[in-house]
Amino acid sequence: MTADDVTLADLPLREDLRGRSPYGAPQLDVPIRLNTNENPYPPPPELVDDVAAAVREAAQELHRYPDRDAVALRQDLARYLSASTGVALSERNLWAANGSNEVLQQIMQAFGGPGRTALGFEPSYSMHPIISAGTRTEWVPTPRRADFSLDTAEAAVIVAERRPDIVFVTSPNNPTGGSIPLEELEPVLRAAPGIVVVDEAYAEFSSRRSAVELLDAYPAKLIVSRTMSKAFAFAGGRLGYLAAAPAVVDALQLVRLPYHLSVLTQAAARAALRHADATLASVAKLSAERERVAEALRGLGFIPVPSDANFILFGEFGDAKASWKSYVDAGVLVRDVGIEGHLRVSIGTPEENDAFLAASKEVPR
Ligand code: PMP
């Protein structure tokens, strides 16, 4: 037997991981890729130059470990988040990691784990249950309404009954696109006995107020997670962050690996943040395109789910898998998120969106 002959079944894998599938958005080499909710606009040349210069300077210190607590980066993130939400925050309220996925994993490591539960409203971001499984936190799926909106009064009742250690509320929600007003979030916060994570990965695309505004009212419960992957066009840089009470940051430091954010990541993210105004200018363009695409889909007889993120879930398809394949054959990669009769498309450049709409006229329904 060679190394290549060994299969998962031959390994002493944890019982609870047997039979599970890894997270996997197919990454196919097609001309139009609208499947992972990236920002379609590449970083402007000034940002690329600034990142390159910052990384070059940081490289001179590569023989040293980075700042374990990423203080300067957290100060920059606090400045950005304070300016965009109107809430006074300092680096003591901010924590950062390699993508918000790592932030969420650290939250689960600190507040979840064996014997504990995490509850989410599905369909929602598929990594929440996967991270839950990886940290041996029992996942409690709770359905949304048939139109994918969240009945927060009912949600609060379920939370009060089930008493999960962690509640996930994704706003705007991926993959359905809708977001929740703050006044509707509060009953869930009041009912929750433990931590409530509001995953605001797509917040910049929404006109709603951020849950960051509720931090003072629920300091021992609320964590708001964010990312530079979407609006900031920094998905490849891997930088996610959260805002919470300083004590939450202390808790996460118990589980984070030392030096988890490389000196290169910290330098690149700080450089990218210096160009936030230029990068975030794409948000208005993408939001306008989202409305144009939704309207055009309606014109073609599709039913787009109202979205204030940079993607749209739309239907109805008799066989979403077959229709997904037809899009691929037409050179357009959209996402089959496993919701019957529906596909999700990320908003691209106007040209990419036109190609998607042209393909939409031809796909079987
Ligand atoms: N939360 C939500 C709701 C997302 O959709 C995503 C990315 N698809 C993430 C978190 C994680 O993004 P990242 O790790 O790139 O920050």
UniProtKB/TrEMBL annotation:
Q: In which pathway is this protein known to take part?
A: Amino-acid biosynthesis; L-histidine biosynthesis; L-histidine from 5-phospho-alpha-D-ribose 1-diphosphate: step 7/9
SUPFAM superfamilies linked to this entry: PLP-dependent transferases
State what protein this is by name: Histidinol-phosphate aminotransferase
Which key words tag this protein in UniProt? Amino-acid biosynthesis, Aminotransferase, Antibiotic biosynthesis, Histidine biosynthesis, Pyridoxal phosphate, Transferase
Q: Where is this region: Disordered?
A: 16-43
- Domain of life where this protein originates: Bacteria
Cofactors named for this entry = pyridoxal 5'-phosphate
- Record GO terms (molecular function): histidinol-phosphate transaminase activity; pyridoxal phosphate binding
User: Which enzyme class?
Assistant: transferase
Q: Name one Pfam family in it.
A: Aminotran_1_2
Q: Which Gene3D superfamilies match?
A: Aspartate Aminotransferase, domain 1, Type I PLP-dependent aspartate aminotransferase-like (Major domain)
Name one process (GO BP) from the record. L-histidine biosynthetic process
The family note in this entry says: Belongs to the class-II pyridoxal-phosphate-dependent aminotransferase family. Histidinol-phosphate aminotransferase subfamily.
Q: Say if the entry is tagged with keyword Transferase.
A: yes
Annotated InterPro entries? Aminotrans_II_pyridoxalP_BS (IPR001917), Aminotransferase_I/II_large (IPR004839), HisP_aminotrans (IPR005861), PyrdxlP-dep_Trfase (IPR015424), PyrdxlP-dep_Trfase_major (IPR015421), PyrdxlP-dep_Trfase_small (IPR015422)
Task: Give the reactions, separated by semicolons, that this protein catalyses.
Answer: L-histidinol phosphate + 2-oxoglutarate = 3-(imidazol-4-yl)-2-oxopropyl phosphate + L-glutamate
Modified residue N6-(pyridoxal phosphate)lysine is at which positions?
K230
**EC number(s) stated in the UniProt entry for this protein:** 2.6.1.9
Please report the organism this UniProt entry assigns to the protein: Amycolatopsis rhizosphaerae
**Taking every annotated instance into account, which residue ranges of this chain make up the domain Aminotransferase class I/classII large?**
32-358
Q: How does this protein assemble?
A: Homodimer.
